[in-house]
Amino acid sequence: MATISSGGEPAHATADREIVIARVIDAPRELVFEPFTRVRHLSRWWGPEGFTTTTRSFEFRVGGEWDFVMHGPDGTDYQEWITWREIVPPERIALLHGESRDDPNAFESVLTFAPDGAATRIVMRTVFPTEQLRDEAVEKYHAIEGGQQTLSSLAAYVTEIGRKGAEG
Amino acid sequence: MARAATTSDAFNAIAEPQRREILALLRSGERPVTELARNLGMTQPQASKHLRVLREVGLVRVRGAGKQRLYGLDARGLRPVHEWVGGFERFWSESFDRLDEYVQELKQARQEGPHDGDDQ
User: Fold this and answer.
1) From residue A110, how far is each of A123, A128, B28 by CA, in Å?
2) Residue A138 and residue B89: Cβ atoms within 8 Å?
3) What does the pLDDT look like over B39-77, one tens digit per residue?
4) Which of B17, B82, B107 lies nearest to residue A154, judging by beta carbons?
5) Domain spans of chain A?
6) Rg of chain B over all Cα atoms, to the nearest angstrom
7) pTM of the full predicted structure?
8) CATH number of the domain to which B49 belongs
9) Are residues B69 and B87 located together in one domain of the fold?
10) Cα distance from A119 to chain B (closest Cα, Å)?
């Protein structure tokens, strides 16, 4: 089910079960794409502030897998698993994200990298198979981040939400 | 009376674009109403009205500092919004923050010369 959601569905059909996050990064897109392609890069930035990762295996190719553990700042470990569905350097990455290879609730995220002047606009779009799975993922990741709420990150949400409101 | 519904919680309070601009300005620190009004190109009574709404829902607090009253962010009020938005978005939002920082480091390193060990 999740396999057909690679960004082809009209927005109104998926609005209640998708999450879209965009960011403009001041660098050419080759440079923004590269940190997604190797463990030594990913381990530097993957996850929220204060999180680290330990990789068991990593093979960046279509059908390859990234098997890793995410360590929260409070010492809690989270099993994570990713497989790549589509890799188009430096434009697009589609990946399936779950807790393990046989996770029935794994969901697909599509990352696109588009030039924006000299910068790069990166968009992460996740369409969940159902609204319920979307809510469950939101809950799960909320639990992952439990507690560490800084004033600045909370406040950053105001601008995030504002931007989304402006985009309709 | 009908006004009450539009200002009764954080969601309604931040639905107004100018109030979001006020919150964005307060992220960098406390400010007096005169400065907020000037920065946003509104009159002082207009800014005061928005600030009152933001205070009522706990997004903004005020304290006296000499003759001035300084308005500051009270992020506790954003908690319900944060919880509704959920951790998944924040997960990516914070990851993108860190990615941005890391890319800037890479960019800097490239400009300083090729010294990139290709080990994994």
Assistant:
1) 8, 12, 33
2) yes
3) 999 999 999 999 999 999 889 999 998 888 999 988 777
4) B82
5) 15-167
6) 20
7) 0.58
8) 1.10.10.10
9) no
10) 11
The CATH architecture to which A15-167 belongs is 2-Layer Sandwich (3.30)
> What ranges make up the beta strands (E) of chain B?
31-32, 60-65, 68-73
DSSP code, position B118? -
Note whether B104 and B51 are same-domain residues. no
CA B69, B73, B79, B81 dihedral sign is positive
Please give, rounded to a whole number of angstroms, the shortest distance from the CA of B117 to a CA of chain A. 11
Q: State which residue of chain B sits closest to A30, comparing Cα positions.
A: B103
**Count of domains for chain B:** 2
The complex scores an ipTM of: 0.72
Query: Smallest CA–CA separation between B95 and chain A, in Å?
Result: 5
Task: Decide if B34 is inside a domain.
Answer: yes
Residues of A in contact with B100 (CB under 8 A): 23, 25-26
Range of the domain at B34: 2-75
